[in-house]
């Protein structure tokens, strides 16, 4: 076995076996219960049909200075908050609606668009040039039936516009909003949006000794309904990664395991203080690529990290091991959505990061309502 192959196997085995080790460990302290606000939707208002005039931009890059990084510490008016949490629904026939909402029980969440107030963590770093691979490439191709169909890798799916998504229910896929909408209009590919499920070569009659040389096939399923928060639909010049997420509802339920959502915990309550995600990076066509890395910095709405990633990984479900009080064990849960790259300018110093949108209590309430259609089911266990 070559050294590289041995290293990959070692990392994957640790990834699969570590949960069993963690299950015997108690958290350093019991995280306090998370208060989930309630979204009360109004009757949807019909909108004109989408023109589908936008072009898909897989490589999303934004800029942020000190004021936007510390935005979570400032007051946000309730009217502005509820406007951003309104959402559009795009149907498979091209029609769309706008649903406005009221927020109940949000008094503790006026400091930002949904997360408890926390002082952003900032580390002193040297200046970097723009890149999405940091040092040695730390990504691993996931190959073979045992891995491709094994949880959590089996929860990663392809989006027909060139992105990645994660299964979060038997009929729903969470992805990045910029994969279907550029902030002004839906992309051309959203007109007939599809979700792709990997099928290992051996399931297609390929002999076992040849599967390593074959790439998996993809089974495509049409999307029935797409939901995008109004906080994203502001126009390309006003794009903010804070609301770069969308939910796709499949035409038919799937039979694969899915990963449950969780409000992103503070870094101290995240096992190993690291995140993981698998996606379909454009430089490794047809391959599912896994990576993990520590969280470098965090703000109220974003997770800053140096996980290696390339265009195509956008929309990947970022997960960590979160302590589940009801089960009394560590569980993998989706705590964010990989968005792209951001330049961060703090105290005159430019830094660059790969960035994920963190699931805050209000975003959890919104996405949960999209999934269940019943706000009473949206409580954090």
Largest sheet: 8 strands, mixed
Give the count of helical stretches: 5
Q: Give the assembly state of these chains.
A: single chain
Distance between the termini: 44 Å
Total DSSP E strands: 19
Order of helices and strands: HEEEHHEEEEHEEEEEEEEEEEEH
| Coarse structural class | alpha+beta
- Low-pLDDT parts are 1-10, 19-24, 108-120, 122-131
Can you offer a commentary on this structure?
The chain has helices spanning 3-22, 66-69, 78-85, 145-148, 361-372; strands at residues 38-41, 45-47, 61-64, 87-91, 96-99, 101-104, 140-142, 156-159, 164-167, 172-175, 194-199, 217-229, 246-250, 274-279, 288-298, 302-305, 317-324, 329-346, 349-358. It is 13% helix and 31% strand. The strands form 3 sheets. Strands 3, 7, 14, 15, 16, 17, 18 and 19 form an 8-stranded mixed sheet that branches. The chain has a 6-stranded antiparallel barrel with strand order 8-9-10-13-12-11. A two-stranded antiparallel sheet has the order 1-6. A hairpin with a 4-residue loop joins strand 17 (317-324) and strand 18 (329-346). It has 5 helices and 19 strands. The protein is globular and about 50 Å long. By secondary structure, it is an alpha+beta fold.
